Every structure is written in C-alpha cells, then in structure tokens.
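We store chain and fold; thus.
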Amino acid sequence: MKLNAFDYFLIIGTTAVSIASSLLGEGWDTLGFIVAVTGIVNLVLCAKGNIWNYLFGIIYNAIYVYIAWKSRLFADSAIYLLYYLPMQFVGWVQWKKNRNEESGAVNAVHLTRRTAVVLVLAAAVLIPLFAWILSRPVIGDSQPWLDSVTTVISILAMYMMVKAIAEQWYIWIVLDAAQVVKWTVATIRGEEHAALMLVMFAFFLANAVYGLIQWNGLAKRASDRQPR
C-alpha cells in the first residue's frame, strides 16, 4: 500500500520537529532523533498493514530500551527489551503467513467478545500489581503508576498487533496518550532525551487514530473476501 499525504506529514513532521528540538536545545540528540524517526515510520507502515514496519520496529525498540533506562523508567525499558523487541520477529513471521496476495497488506480481523473480556481482566489485574512492584524502594521507579499502565497496555497491544486485530488501535490511542503525559513530566524535570520522546509520542497518537480508521477498512475488506 502506498503512502499518502498524511503519512508523509507524520514522517516529515516528526523528523522536522526532532531536528528543531535538538538544534534549539542543549545539543544534537542523535539517539532521540533516530528513535523518533524510526518509531514513526514503524507505526505509519503498521497503520498501512505493511510488514516492513517490523524492520523499523527492531531499530526503534532497541534504542528506546536504552533511553527509557536512562530516564529510570525501568518497566518501560524491561518490556521493550524482553517483549517488544522479540515480538518484532514474531510479528514478521505471523504477518508473512497472513498477508493478502493482491494488496500485500495483512488480513485484519475484529476483536471477539471473549478475547476482549480476557484482555480487560488481564489489564485490571496486572496494572495495580506492576505499579505496586515498581513503587518498592528497591526498584524506585520514577513514575510507577504511569509506567505500569503503559507497560501492561503495551503487552496487550503488541499481542493484538501480531494477531492483526483491528481494535488494537484503541489501545494504542490510550497508550500513546499516557506516554505523552509521562514524557511531559520527564521534560519538565529536564531529563535527557525527554523532549524528543514527547514529540514522538504526540505524533504516534495522531497515527494511532489514523491507524484505527485504516484497519477497520482492512478488516472489512478481509471479511468481504471470505466465502459466505
């Protein structure tokens, strides 16, 4: 599927703002720039159902692990290292098996009621559990509740992405909104790379809304192709 004007707006906008943020700040932020650009390209391609999103996802996730660790967002760092990064390879394999031969896009499906109930219950249990663990003095996470929310939602959203479930984008919208809040706090505190992460997740939020629209269309077309 070809990129359209909004896709280019997201990619170019993220790139331009990242460059401006570095030039107007204390110095050029190479890591922040790379993770911002690869991150938005990853999600733009994902919104298109394009399997090549996973190539950029590998780069983005690997660098984000380091940035989150330096900002003492330990749950974020751990989940990206132990779950998000490996799932890029799993997703590549799954999407390769589930692509539409004509368009090249993944065949999306809608969320079933049973799966939705399981995901909601999992979030209700894991979010307070993770927040309690992260708030322990031995860990000392700087934002335990927000870190826990984004961590748990990340697990669920990535699972839905690999399974090509269209409603994953509702979760990405919540996740990216939480990340915007988290990195706003980090920016106010003056933490390194925080401003670029804030910009990146703001663009991610816009892409998530766009992705929801796109994937509803992919799921409908996949349903229409099935024999009745």
